[in-house]
Amino acid sequence: MIKYSLKNRTHKLTSIFFLFIGFSFFCFAQDISVNPSDPDKTKIFSLDECDSLFSEYYRNSSISDEDLKILIDGIGSLTDSLEKILLENKKMRDIKKQNELLILYLEHAEILSTIYNYGGMNHQGKLIKKIDKDLKRFLKLSGLEGEVYLKYADYLYTKLPLPETKRFNTILTLPVLYRMALLKDKNNKAAFVKLSCWQIAAADETTSNFNSQIKSTEEYIEELNEVDKFNAYIWYSIFYMKTYDTKKGWYHFYKAKNIFPDHPLVSLLYENYKKGILIL
């Protein structure tokens, strides 16, 4: 069993959670199977399996050797499939299949990048760099769905704590990706919540424009998956504390704690609140 501690890297990674609302593994994705005609028959985690795997990582701070190998082998197989699509005539491409593959690729990429940034998988630095390079090409494909933009935003969250990351440009890119996702699908509730969470860092009792947006999307939180829900409750707790509604602030804090009680963000935020610090 490989165990990657979240606690030792908490302070370095707290910035990621403003943007990690990573929040990786969206609740609205459908299950995608491996094409039975794939010659290598590589096992690839479905979207639902990725979602479960990420929840377990949040819950236990660990991932098994076997699951990690499946993730690495799976992203290799998905890369091969996307490479083939790049070589196809644009008019002949199966856009639906292309988007399904991209979303699943980004799911795998996000979890691998997250583990890497938590201090594990240091020997896989070349793999992460390859993912970064490949994504630049894959995201130039035409006909991208809103969910692809949303998943790409999730992937960017994982890059923020790295020293070489251009944090400023990344932070500015996130709301653009949220809005692109909403332009493609105006009913994408995950995109609404994530955009609101992005706004919380700048919100306080004087920012009525942000506050209205943030409050209007609060009702969608319960529809998110476990990880996204946890992160959303953390940031809505901060929002209400900043706007002096401490009752709601604590309410959202304990909603988050009930999902992942041992996650280091829970103890960190609790200690900050005791000190009067209304931020991670």
Tell me what the structure shows:
The two termini are about 30 Å apart. The chain has helices at about 10-20, 45-60, 65-85, 95-115, 125-140, 145-155, 165-185, 190-200, 210-215, 225-240, 245-260, 265-275, and strands at about 1-5, 60-65. Helix 4 (about 95-115) packs antiparallel against helix 5 (about 125-140). Helices cover about 65% and strands about 0% of the residues. Strands 1-2 form a two-stranded antiparallel ribbon. It is mainly α and about 280 residues long. It has one domain (about 1-275). It has twelve helices and two strands.
Keywords, please?
280 residues; mainly alpha; two-stranded antiparallel ribbon; disordered N terminus
Quick structural summary:
By secondary structure, this protein is mostly helical. Helix content is 63%, strand content 1%.
- Helix coverage percent of residues? 55-70%
Sheet of most strands: 2 strands, antiparallel
Category by helix and strand content:
mainly alpha
Work out the count of structural domains: 1
Please tell me how large the radius of gyration is: 19 Å
Rough outline: globular
The average pLDDT value, as a whole number, equals: 85
The end-to-end span amounts to 30 Å
Uncertain spans? 1-5, 7-39
Order of helices and strands: EHHEHHHHHHHHHH
Number of helices: 12
Strand content: under 5%
Strand line-up of the largest beta sheet: 1-2
Tell me which oligomeric state these chains represent. single chain
How many beta-strand elements?
2
Layout of helices and strands, plus pairs?
Layout lengths: L1 E2 L6 H10 L27 H14 L1 E2 L1 H23 L7 H23 L7 H14 L7 H12 L9 H18 L4 H12 L7 H9 L9 H17 L3 H14 L4 H11 L6
Antiparallel strand pairs: 1-2
